[in-house]
Design goal:
heterodimer; A: 597 residues; mainly alpha; two-stranded antiparallel ribbon; 32 helices; 6 strands; 3% strand; disordered N terminus; B: 435 residues; alpha/beta; 9-stranded mixed beta sheet; 3-stranded antiparallel beta sheet; 15 helices; 12 strands; globular
Chain lengths: 597, 435
């Protein structure tokens, strides 16, 4: 946990590290170390490619992701996921939330104009009404089949996957929705496993349109992590999303998280920290998640209610939630030198920072009439009265420049990229760079990468992979092909890190000890074996790539020679019979060595 | 000094009989000095100050009382709103501070369930009333940490480490409260239900985390053998240790699964995170595999907005899960003590969005067959502005460590030495007499 490191100068780093932060690792080790920290793990042969290109050049490229051509495989994978390119309003329109559909059912909202979407929504409304009335008159699968034309029935029962897919894609929306309603769960799962992306999205669409948006988001995250050549950008997007964490399952965040990551996080990860802070502060996802959209000056509310008693249903006054987490988790850190009075003053500065029309995608909106117009004192700065929206902007500016922020952000980055207990010297170098460059995150990263500590023995293999890192690095190491990522996301969840679903604003831990438990170990071992044995739904491993003896397979997957004990366990594991290459590969992915980076 | 306890179930291995624990454990007979203290005026309000040596002696099991209990700790993460969970309905000030989210007085629609004329359970906790009446449920009001932080993260960390204000503590109170694991000790003596090992249970004693007993194994047999050998011999100390704990626990739990003794439970656990976790803890207790301490948690108590509806749902789940656990274990509850905690309470006054913000004092429930229940412990600090902590939150009058020390010393049978190890540099301020 990162808070232990604040007081952690005296604590002992993990045994994987254990060495000094002065002594440097060998030239030979540097490319692998770099890939283990700046990417989601090396792909086959990648360490050699980095070595040939040169460490410095590779780092500079990664620090300028826009100059790296987009991997065409990734482009093709993202292309069908259209919600990734939509605005919040478009998402709400094309993938209506269940709340919006209920409103349509009650006649409070017009039906969608798009004819195909209209059919789907009408179908969902009917199902909603049936559920509400306890009406379970839908036919059984058997009855449904009996009513089908013979040829279609034949395909559904005995056709090849290709014939089934063709039939289902050609069905009209209403027919398809009817079919999906009665399709038994098991068959549905089987179909999902071989359906092409259009059909998978269609399957989700007719049961819950907003599920398509969530699916696109998770699919894009894992495909980018596996395939993107702009690996540092992906790692940093994961890091900063987690730093400014929001929780996908909180109401409208199911639809807002896509643009939150795309617009508020991703463009800023190598930009100025202040820009990142402002973008998150004004994004409806954050305003909703930490309740600031409901925060208002109680006196202003009273005045409005005196005239209109039923106005402002859930808004009565101040809500401290965002103000506190902004100071504690986003900027200064819990020991950054603020008081309860500062929390309240900050919250007052952000009164009126709200959202409009969330149901239709909404957007940031400042409600001047709900804003506290009086003077405030924040961290010793005077915020003069009548500043309106500028009060909040001033607070963000004060926080972005604050030395505690420089230190807090540097510490967290060092913990993710260098060591669970990063040395004070490194934090100081990074914090100094942060201060000197006005919070330029590219420069902070560059300073970290140029430090002695980064390529030190103390950093080498000292970090335990998070579930996301473990799963993605396994797929990359095998050079496996991801056909759909839902199954991988389920595995990551099994290991304790459901994507976009950390409920608390702290985000997931950047420290190894959070990811070392018997529960996650068992999930990791099962995943390793299933993946290599080609039993992980949605992922294909080419058996041909795993040739040679066990030692060679191990070296290929780990990038370093395995320990004697790891190799011996595989050699002796077949009870007299040789362990086949795929099982050996699975064993390596589950080995203690592969759990570290 | 930690005193070694002679445990009747120390080597759990694979139990050969399915005898009930009642049959194989000796019941606690209170030795004279402790019963003197228990019967004295000291325990009536439960908060009277004691000299430290006397406090420790009263909790200790020196003298032969061997009433070891299994301690089950539940962490309610997010700062549960104590004031709306056990409602101080006799305080008019409560209704002034919470004009829209207060729980109505007993007898009114949606009113609290009267416990003693002053306090009442939230109506969603109706199922707990019977346990309270049977004197198996105790409530400690106005408990919490002396540390002033209103950070969820820090406050949880302090409560789990057992060392408020000190961040460097590497391990958790419940791990320290256990005797050092003897050779051949049960691999599941300390167990957390969930995917991560919580801070509370980290430390030098082996502790395992699992989310589902049935699937807690390496599915492929050959792979299982390879992995076991690999982790057993690994030069990576940290992973070797996790591996060793894991494979031992897998073997034990699979043998239990094979005997089918974890299934077949008749009581009704609610859906959600807590019910299944408690059901599995109960199953392990019933399997007599040497569980001494168990932990699970339930998130989602951070109700900054629209609290009334959210809290009602959460409490229904909590109350039903506790009740199901109680009925599931039946007579075995005599040997189980369950305690709930939350990192801090919430503002006495409701906030501007029909919720509450981060506060200070909260409450704890203690449940068990040997608990002196049916009472509300602690001294009530009041809700007038000058009585509130920093003029905004319920004050803390009972340090959470007082409650846990007592449960560790008398319940876990760790004695005063174990309690001192669990809460180093802390002298309990009071003995409540919960057990």
């Amino acid at each position: 946990m990162w808070n232990t490191l604040v007081a952690g100068a005296d604590s002992v780093p993990g045994t994987g590290a254990g060495g000094s932060f002065e002594e440097q690792i060998s030239e030979q080790q540097r490319p692998l170390h770099l890939l283990n920290r700046l990417s989601f793990g090396p792909r086959p042969g990648e360490a050699d490619r980095v070595r040939r290109k040169g460490i410095e050049k590779w780092i500079e490229e990664q620090l300028h992701p826009d100059e790296i051509p987009v991997n065409p495989v990734l482009t093709a994978r993202l292309e069908p996921l259209d919600s990734l390119r939509m605005s919040d309003q478009e998402i709400a329109e094309h993938y209506p939330s269940s709340q919006l559909i209920r409103a349509m059912a009650m006649g409070k909202e017009p039906l969608p104009e798009d004819p195909e979407l209209q059919v789907i929504v009408e179908h969902l409304i009917e199902r909603y009404r049936n559920r509400k009335d306890g009406n379970r008159s839908q036919p059984s699968w058997r009855e449904y089949l009996a009513a089908m034309p013979a040829e279609q029935r034949r395909i559904l029962l005995w056709g090849t996957p290709r014939q089934k897919v063709k039939l289902l894609l050609e069905m009209k929306a209403g027919e398809f929705a009817d079919l999906l309603t009665v399709l038994p769960r098991k068959k549905r799962r089987a179909l999902f496993a071989y359906a092409p992306v259009e059909l998978r999205r269609r399957m989700l669409m007719v049961s819950s349109p907003q599920q398509v948006v969530i699916n696109d988001l998770i699919e894009s995250k894992l495909c980018r992590a596996v395939y993107s050549d702009r690996q540092l950008e992906e790692v940093l997007t994961d890091f900063w999303f987690n730093h400014f964490n929001v929780y996908l399952n909180k109401g409208p965040l199911r639809q807002l998280t896509t643009t939150y990551e795309r617009d508020a996080i991703r463009p800023h990860v190598l930009g100025k920290f202040g820009g990142l802070l402002r973008a998150t502060a004004q994004h409806p996802a954050m305003l909703y998640y930490l309740d600031n959209w409901l925060s208002a000056d109680p006196k202003a509310v009273e005045k409005i209610r005196a005239r209109r008693p039923n106005a402002l249903r859930n808004i009565r006054g101040l809500n401290e939630n965002y103000g506190r987490e902004l100071l504690e988790l986003h900027t200064l850190g819990v020991d950054g030198g603020y008081t309860q009075e500062d929390v309240i003053a900050v919250a007052r500065c952000f009164t009126g920072w709200s959202v409009h029309d969330l149901r239709h995608g909404g957007g940031f909106e400042f409600h001047a009439r709900l804003h506290d117009r009086e003077e405030k004192q924040v961290l010793g700065y005077r915020i003069s009265p009548g500043g309106g929206i500028e009060d909040g902007m001033k607070v963000l500016d004060i926080l972005a420049r604050h030395p505690s922020t420089a230190r807090f952000v540097s510490t967290k980055l060092a913990q993710r990229f260098v060591a669970d207990h990063p040395p004070e010297s490194l934090i100081e170098t990074m914090a100094w760079t942060f201060q000197k460059t006005g919070g330029d995150l590219r420069e902070v990263m560059r300073a970290m990468l140029a430090s002695r500590e980064f390529f030190s023995v103390g950093a080498w293999r000292g970090k335990v992979k998070s579930p996301l890192e473990l799963v993605v690095s396994s797929v990359r190491a095998l050079g496996a092909r991801v056909e759909f990522a839902t199954g991988l996301a389920e595995q990551i969840e099994q290991m304790g890190e459901p994507l976009y679903r950390k409920e608390e604003p702290t985000g997931y831990s950047n420290s190894s000890d959070a990811w070392m438990s018997s529960a996650t170990l068992v999930a990791r071992l099962n995943f390793a074996f299933a993946l290599a044995a080609n039993r992980q739904p949605g992922v294909k491993v080419d058996r041909g790539t795993l040739r040679g003896g066990h030692a060679r397979i191990a070296l290929r997957l780990l990038g370093i020679p395995p320990s004697e004990s790891t190799l011996a366990a595989i050699e002796n594991g077949g009870n007299g019979r040789p362990v086949p290459p795929l099982l050996a590969a699975g064993a390596i992915l589950g080995s203690p060595e592969f759990q570290r980076r | 000094m930690r005193r070694k306890q002679s445990s009747t179930i120390s080597n759990a291995g694979i139990p050969e009989t399915n005898e009930s624990p009642d049959a194989i454990r000796t019941h606690s007979t209170l030795f004279p000095r402790r019963s003197f203290l228990r019967n004295s005026a000291l325990t009536i309000a439960g908060t009277a100050a004691l000299p430290s040596w006397l406090g420790r002696a009263a909790m200790g099991s020196e003298g032969g009382g061997n009433g070891k209990k299994i301690l089950v700790a539940i962490f309610l993460r997010g700062a549960a709103d104590g004031l709306n969970i056990v409602v101080p309905f006799a305080e008019p000030r409560y209704y002034d501070l919470r004009p829209t989210i207060a729980v109505p007085r007993p007898g009114e629609t949606g009113g609290a369930i009267d416990l003693n004329g002053s306090f009442g359970l939230h109506p969603s906790l109706a199922s707990l009333k019977a346990l309270y009446d049977e004197k198996h449920l105790a409530i400690i009001e106005a408990t919490g940490s002396p540390d002033p932080t209103r950070s969820h993260f820090d406050a949880q960390d302090y409560m789990e480490s057992g060392t408020p204000g000190r961040k460097g503590t590497p391990d958790g109170w419940l791990n320290r409260a256990l005797d050092p694991t003897p050779a051949g000790g049960s691999p599941v003596r300390a167990i957390a239900l969930g995917k991560q090992l919580p801070r509370t249970l980290r430390g030098s004693n082996p502790a395992i985390a699992l989310s589902d007993i049935g699937s807690f194994r390496v599915r492929n047999r050959v792979a299982a053998g390879i992995f076991e050998a690999m982790y057993e011999e690994s030069p990576d100390e940290e992973l070797r240790a996790v591996g060793a704990e894991t494979f031992e626990a897998i073997k034990l739990l699979q043998s239990v699964e094979n005997q089918n003794s974890t299934g077949g439970d008749r009581s009704e656990y609610p859906k959600g995170a807590l019910g299944p976790s408690l059901q599995q803890i109960a199953a392990l207790i019933k399997a007599d595999v040497g569980v001494e301490a168990a932990f699970t948690d339930m998130g989602g108590w951070d109700h900054h907005t629209n609290e009334s509806q959210q809290l009602a749902n959460m409490l229904r789940q909590l109350g039903d899960a506790l009740t199901a656990f109680y009925h599931d274990l039946g007579g075995r509850m005599e040997n189980v003590v369950l305690v709930t905690m939350s990192e801090f309470g919430r503002t006495a006054r409701e906030n501007g969005s029909l919720g509450t913000d981060h506060g200070h004092g909260s409450l704890m429930f203690v449940m068990g067959g040997s608990v002196n229940g049916g009472k509300i412990y602690g001294s009530w600090p009041g809700l007038e502005t000058e009585q509130l902590y920093e003029e905004r939150d319920l004050a803390v009058t009972t340090d959470f460590r007082d409650v846990l020390s007592e449960l560790a010393a008398k319940g876990l049978g760790a004695g005063s030495g174990g309690a001192a190890a669990a809460f180093p540099d802390y002298e309990p301020q009071s003995v409540l007499g919960l057990l």
